[in-house]
Backbone:
């Protein structure tokens, strides 16, 4: 079934551009089961123009015995050699939430777990792992440690083994949510870290999109690595990039090479929908200039 973005109820949107197919693949958290209910897995939508989306197509369905039975969140899919790798977060009762790697021969799956457990520490409540490969070819996963466990949400990077099937070292703390001047504490005094995504600017500067609570609801801003390395140190821009109750964004290039960003907005169930903006980069800053 062909749909427009306004008809697709997902959170945490992620778009993979595949030039050889001349197609885009949209993934995300199923909106109706994001917080409650038992998800069936992950789906994808396919487009040739970023306007009309065909689907949903099932890309991940857990086998019997899969350890998680709820909170299937934030799938991201990357080309990895001749394969495709998905990072996604999962939860089970009495088991800490974690990000796991899955692998497939095709963007539409089927994806299967790559390792035997999540890439995040087993005794940490974590979510929203995103893949970054540095200039030396080393793979890292940047992820959030939840405020539920530490109150002031934390952002970490952990090095991964070449096959992405396990961590290869200890997580390194990058920053805390309260470090950003636009981050606002919730009713319980908590600061949220959500949705990291790393991007190299035209100048070579390494930035990170990430989301938290702000003055007008869900808010997304930019952190900058002052060393150019994923391990930082990281500084926070003084003003957010998007402050109107939307976020968990990522950046991609369309088939014509133009820079785009997708987020979900608003951050209110059941109204959240994926939104796509065209971006402009000016003097080391990003600005969204048009909306699909």
Residues:
């Amino acid at each position: 079934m062909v749909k427009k973005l306004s008809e697709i109820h997902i959170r945490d949107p992620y778009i993979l551009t595949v030039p050889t197919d001349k197609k885009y693949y949209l993934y995300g958290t199923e909106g109706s089961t994001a917080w409650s209910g038992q998800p069936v897995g992950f789906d994808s939508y396919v487009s040739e123009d970023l306007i009309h989306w065909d689907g949903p197509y099932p890309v991940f369905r857990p086998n019997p015995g899969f350890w998680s039975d709820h909170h299937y969140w934030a799938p991201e899919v990357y080309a990895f050699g001749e394969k495709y790798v998905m990072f996604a977060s999962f939860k089970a009762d009495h088991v800490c939430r974690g990000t796991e790697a899955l692998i497939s021969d095709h963007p539409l799956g089927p994806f299967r777990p790559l390792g035997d457990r999540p890439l995040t520490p087993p005794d940490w409540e974590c979510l929203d792992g995103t893949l970054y490969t540095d200039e030396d070819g080393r793979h890292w996963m940047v992820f959030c440690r939840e405020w539920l466990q530490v109150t002031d949400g934390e952002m970490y990077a952990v090095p991964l083994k070449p096959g992405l099937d396990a961590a290869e070292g200890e997580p390194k703390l990058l920053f805390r949510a309260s470090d950003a001047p636009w981050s606002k504490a919730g009713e319980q005094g908590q600061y949220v870290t959500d949705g990291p995504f790393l991007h190299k600017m035209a100048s070579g500067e390494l930035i990170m999109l990430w989301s938290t609570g702000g003055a007008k609801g869900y808010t997304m801003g930019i952190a900058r690595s002052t060393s150019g390395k994923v391990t930082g140190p990281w500084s926070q821009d003084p003003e957010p990039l998007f402050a109107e109750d939307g976020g968990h964004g990522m950046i991609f290039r369309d088939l014509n090479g133009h820079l785009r960003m997708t987020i979900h907005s608003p951050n209110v169930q059941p109204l959240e929908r994926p939104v796509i903006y065209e971006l402009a980069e000016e003097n080391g800053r990003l600005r969204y200039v048009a909306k699909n």
